[in-house]
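User: Quick sanity check before I run a bigger batch. Here is a single chain. Can you write out its predicted 3D structure?
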Amino acid sequence: MRKSLSVVAVAAAALCFAAVAYAGPGPQTEDKDAPPPPLPPLQKNFPLDQTWSLRELNGKPVPASLDVSLKIDGALHGSGFAGCNSWSAVMYPIKDQHLAVGQYALTKKQCDKDTMAIEAGFLSALLASPAWDLVNGDLVIKGPRGAMRLARSL
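Assistant: Done. Predicted structure follows.
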C-alpha cells in the first residue's frame, strides 16, 4: 500500500510540474518597442589540418627568420616547432571557441635566450584554455597566459 501511495505521489508531482511547465510563465507585459534579444554568437569551426606560423606574440612581432608553428590534425593531435624544439600534445577545440591542451611532449634542445623566451611564451600562451578566433585570415589565440597571432603557412 505504501509503495502504491508513493508511486501515486510521484506521478501527481510530475503532472503538476508538467502543467506548470506547459502553461509557461504568467502574463507578461511586452514592450513592443524593445529590440529583440541579442542572438548568441556564431560558433566557428577550428581549421584542422592546417599549419599556422607565429607572427606576433604578446603584441610584439616575431622575427620572420624564427620558425614557430602550430597544427591540430583531424585526430586532435597538436604539434609543431616552437623556435628551438619540436612539440606535440593532445589539443582540441572546445565550447565557445577555446582550446584544451594536454601535457606537452617537447624535445630538450637549448638555443639562445631570445629564442627560448619566444618558445616559452608561445607554449605558455596555449595553456589555461585560451580563446581562439579567425581574424582577417589569421588565427588569433588569447588567454590568461598570453596572446598571439598566427598566419596560415604552406
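Confidence is low (pLDDT under 50) at residues 1-24.

User: Great, the batch can go ahead then.
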